[in-house]
Amino acid sequence: MDLLFFALALAFLILIHELGHFLAAKALGIEIEEFGIGFPPRVARLFEWRGTVFTLNLIPLGGFVRAKGEGNPEQPDALAQAPPLRRAVVVLAGPLMNFLVAALIYFLIYGATGKPHSQAVLVWWVEPNSPAQAAGLRPGDLIVAAQGQPVTRAEALQQVVRATPPGQPVRLTVRRGDQTLQLAVQPRIQPPPGQGPMGIRIIDYGWQPVPLSERLRLAWQGLWAHTWALVRLPWQMLQAWLVPAAEPPPGEVMGFRGMYNSFQLAFAVDQAAPAPVPIYSLSLLASLSLSLAVLNMLPIPALDGSRLVLALGEWLFRRRLPWRVEVALMLMGFVLLLALMVLINLREWV
């Protein structure tokens, strides 16, 4: 069920992206010959609307929009014949739709929950073969006390663990659904790199009611911070690659397996620590939608960003690259991106 939901979520975000291109093209009088649900080969022709054939295709991982004149740009009403600013609007509409989906998710989350106000510590991840796993901690557990002291923030729990004498266990009061458990975790003196003494990843958990205007402000603030972090991430990753002494980037590039594992974990946490809405699953969906928007705006051939650069360059300099040069650039970019995608996904299985 988790795998089906993940596949549907990914397909939905790609379809929304293509829908943005489609609606903008239609509004500007640019003909779209086909709107494909899924990727070819074609399974069925569904219906036709205003000159566009809607089709169902075999590979259910997204969709595509085929504009008039893709094989022959000299056709009237072809996308290639549209003025550069109109082409720029069509290009921008896809990432904009993904941004709007993320915005709606943020407003839904904050509208349903309110202002973050930590009341417990949520166990987000338990490392395999760690003291936490041996003690019986699970993702989704809520830690409400440590060594008999109430803890409402992750930082407070970390302070209790650091203050515990070496060799002594940390006694935790854990809320798991309707149960309250008493667990003892023996922290490691020298944990493996990237892991803490107990082997868990924790975050603050809890909210408090606030007026609707405050919820909207917090949603917009969170959306903007997330977007800006994603915009900066490619540069931070490049900097870390070029300068070994540079600070490691705050995120990483994931393939399908990594994304699925993240969604699977979020589903489990949402079920174990229920809230008015499935916060962590929705947050990952918003993150994926924003990632699609930001990634597509990179000026790399075959992505929307490169098409935007070409359109704006034509508008500024009143000259356009030969059509065959544009096609060659897009083809080379597509091959490189496909190779990169294969490498990223293979890395997760090796």
Please give a quick description of this structure:
The chain is an alpha+beta fold and 350 residues long.
How large a portion of the residues is in β-strands, by DSSP E? 15-25%
Structural class: alpha+beta
Taking all residues together, what is the mean pLDDT?
Answer: 86
- Total strands: the figure is 8
Taking Cα atoms only, what radius of gyration do you get, to the nearest Å? 24 Å
- Biggest sheet character: 6 strands, antiparallel
Number of helices: 9
In the predicted model, the low-confidence regions spanning at least 5 consecutive residues are: none
Note the run of SSEs as H and E: HEEHEHEEHEEEHHHHH
* Gross morphology: elongated
Distance between the termini: 25 Å
Task: Please bin the fraction of helical residues.
Answer: 40-55%
How many domains make up the coordinates?
Answer: 2
What does this structure look like?
The chain has helices at residues 2-27, 84-113, 131-135, 154-163, 212-242, 256-272, 279-296, 304-317, 323-347; strands spanning 32-49, 52-67, 115-126, 142-146, 149-150, 170-176, 179-185, 200-208. The chain is built from nine helices and eight strands. The mean pLDDT is 86. The protein is elongated, with a radius of gyration of 24 Å. α2 (84-113) packs across α5 (212-242) and α2 (84-113) runs antiparallel to α7 (279-296). It is of the alpha+beta class. β1 and β2 (52-67) form a beta hairpin. The longest helix is centred in the middle third of the chain and has 31 residues, at 212-242. The chain has two domains: 1-30 and 82-114 and 210-350, no CATH class; 116-208, Roll (Pdz3 Domain), CATH 2.30.42. Strands 3, 4, 5, 6, 7 and 8 form a six-stranded antiparallel beta sheet that branches.
